[in-house]
Design goal:
The complex is a heterodimer of chains A (272) and B (284).
Chain A lengths: L2 H34 L16 H8 L1 H34 L5 H9 L6 H14 L6 H27 L2 H8 L4 H30 L2 H6 L7 H11 L4 H24 L1 H4 L7
Helix pairs in contact in A: 1-11, 2-11, 3-6, 3-8, 3-10, 6-8, 7-8
Chain B lengths: L6 H27 L1 E3 L6 E4 L2 H5 L3 H34 L3 H12 L6 H12 L4 H8 L13 H25 L3 H9 L4 H12 L1 H17 L2 H7 L6 H10 L4 H25 L1 H4 L5
Antiparallel strand pairs in B: 1-2
Helix pairs in contact in B: 1-13, 3-4, 3-7, 3-10, 5-7, 5-11, 7-10, 7-11, 8-9, 10-13, 12-13
The chains are: A mainly alpha (272), B mainly alpha (284).
Chain lengths: 272, 284
């Protein structure tokens, strides 16, 4: 075999490999979609008949409805607070040095490697010891802690891309440092802020392990309600709910890809 | 560095309060882990080291080793499947293929552990998709037992960790200057050889980062080992939950968490140290 034919075959093999891996990634999604339309409550493959009853049950089941609303409350607060805390911190960290800078940053990034169940357990025991109730505030604080590292990462990237020239121009024209931040830095960071907020919101809405430890019947978020459902029932209601989930997420991501360029947000585009 | 204006303190306040809350919560775990357990009560007794001694018992030691082994396999197989995807994602010039990989490989990242684990239950069950398919084409004559096994758990965990691995590998690969590869091919190296001798070594920092993350994620995964393992696959996470919520033995759950955290830190530090020579490869 000449070298060019060998390279061509290697290319084909590579493409086949990539196709097979994509198939593996897609497989569970495809199976969930098929089962969600099944008419029987016990799953068979291929399903014995088709119906939409599981979709009706998924959107009318009480725990899912309340879980959805709790989830929205927690997500809205947690991602907004995380972006606020992250922005103020990122601006200061990016421009100034102060004592214990590395310690502060290290603590706030530590949830990347501290298991979620440890953080959930710690907060649970803390409120038990202080005799505080397990309300929304606890869940929101927990989610802020968990999503903050991701928010910080996306904010650092957008600060880095900002450059200091416009800020220096404003300062040289006599603007005070706070005014520079408020009228130059923050407006220029807006795309990054939005990206960070969206990222935080999606992560918070889907957070499960820590939420399982610290939520109660009243504050349980959707993933916790779904987990409790799988443990009790085996019917395809959850498959229907998963399909709704997948469709919404894929739509959001496709829109983000079209309008914002997902590759750029996620920082995987090759430099041109 | 410029002089610090007055607003810096105010800007730091929210972050400091958050860090303080997290630190106190972690200190609470530490404090509970050295307290005695009073059966049937949520209050804890005096200071003791018994909890850590109990960790040496067979059941818990086995769960520890099992968790490490699961994490290792997940990271290894995850890397083997994620690397080709990440490479194609960064290097392909076909726009639709790029979008396709981005959407298919990254979407699961935003689906959460419960949805993804549930879909694997339907795939792996005894009358699930995989067994029905294999039975129908006659490859097997009785269903394979995949649920409640380590194999099933690893399969699902690989799927759960793949998106973040692809993402981190792609980030690493996208920062490699393609000119190196072009130089190698223009000097007569085949594309395959150029990949093996240029791109692969340069991408090692990304490999290390993604393996580390996969390891940490698997270690803290709860829904997957709990639902797919069905109580027959013990990991640190499932044991901590059982101890806390079934036995209400919070001191021991805290001790187990602390040991788990200590091990994560040690393993990650060791991984970083072992691969330090590689960290400098990518810098140019």
């Amino acid at each position: 075999m000449t070298r060019s034919t060998r390279d061509r075959w290697l290319g084909y093999a590579g493409r086949l490999l990539v196709a097979l891996i994509l198939l593996f990634v897609l497989l569970p999604t495809v199976v969930v979609v098929i089962s969600s339309f099944s008419s029987t409550s016990v799953l068979f493959f291929p399903p014995k008949g088709w119906s939409l009853r599981w979709f009706e049950r998924a959107v009318s089941y009480d725990d899912f409805r309340s879980g959805f609303y709790s989830g929205l409350i927690v997500t809205a607060w947690a991602s907004t607070l995380a972006v606020f805390i992250g922005t103020t911190l990122a601006i200061v960290i990016h421009r100034y040095t102060f004592r214990f800078k590395a310690v502060l940053e290290g603590i706030l990034l530590s949830p990347l490697f501290i298991p979620h169940f440890t953080i959930g357990l710690g907060l649970l025991m803390l409120v038990a010891q202080l005799n505080l109730g397990r309300g929304y505030a606890l869940v929101i604080f927990c989610h802020v802690v968990l999503v903050l590292p991701f928010v910080l990462r996306s904010l650092y990237v957008s600060l880095q891309n900002l450059g200091q020239r416009v800020e220096m121009a404003a300062a040289s024209l006599g603007a005070s440092p706070l005014r520079v931040v408020w009228t130059i830095t923050v407006p220029l960071m807006l795309p990054g802020l939005f990206g960070g907020w969206l990222f935080a919101a999606i992560l918070s809405f889907n957070e499960f392990t820590a939420s399982l430890f610290i939520t109660t019947q009243r504050t349980q978020t959707l993933p916790v309600a779904m987990y409790n459902y799988v443990r009790e029932f085996a019917d395809p209601t959850l498959a229907a709910l998963s399909v709704i989930y997948i469709v919404i997420t894929a739509t959001l991501l496709t829109l983000a890809n079209r309008f914002l360029g997902l590759g750029r947000i996620l920082n995987v585009d090759a430099p041109r | 560095m410029t002089r610090r204006p007055a607003f810096v303190g105010w800007f730091l306040l929210p972050a400091i309060l958050t860090a303080l809350g997290l630190t106190i919560a972690m200190l609470t775990v530490l404090q509970y882990s050295v307290r005695a357990y009073i059966p049937g009560s949520l209050d804890v007794g005096g200071f003791t080291l018994d909890n850590f001694q109990d960790l040496m018992k067979g059941l818990y030691a086995r769960a520890f080793l099992n968790t490490v082994w699961l994490s290792f396999k997940t990271a290894l197989f995850g890397l083997m499947l994620s690397y080709p995807l990440a490479y194609t994602l960064v290097r392909t010039r076909t726009a639709w293929l790029k979008s396709c990989i981005l959407i298919i490989a990254i979407t699961p990242l935003f689906l959460g552990e419960v949805v993804r684990t549930y879909s694997w239950i339907i795939v792996l069950g005894n009358s699930g998709f995989l067994n029905s398919l294999l039975l129908a084409i006659g490859l097997i004559d009785k269903p394979l037992q995949l649920m409640f096994t380590n194999t099933g758990v690893v399969l699902a965990l690989v799927h759960v960790t793949m998106p973040i691995m692809v993402l981190m590998l792609a980030t690493g690969l996208s920062h490699i200057d393609i000119a190196y590869e072009k130089a190698a091919t223009s000097l007569g190296a085949s594309p395959f050889r150029a990949f093996l001798t240029i791109t692969l070594p340069l991408s090692l920092p990304g490999v290390v980062a993604s393996v580390t993350t996969a390891f940490a994620w698997t270690f803290s995964a709860f829904a997957t080992p709990q639902l797919i393992g069905g109580g027959r696959v013990s990991t640190v996470a499932t044991l901590v939950y059982q101890l806390g919520f079934s036995s209400l033995n919070f001191p021991f759950a805290a001790a187990l968490s602390m040991a788990g955290l200590a091990m994560t830190v040690v393993l990650l530090a060791a991984l970083k140290r072992m691969t330090r020579p590689l960290q400098n490869v990518g810098i140019h």
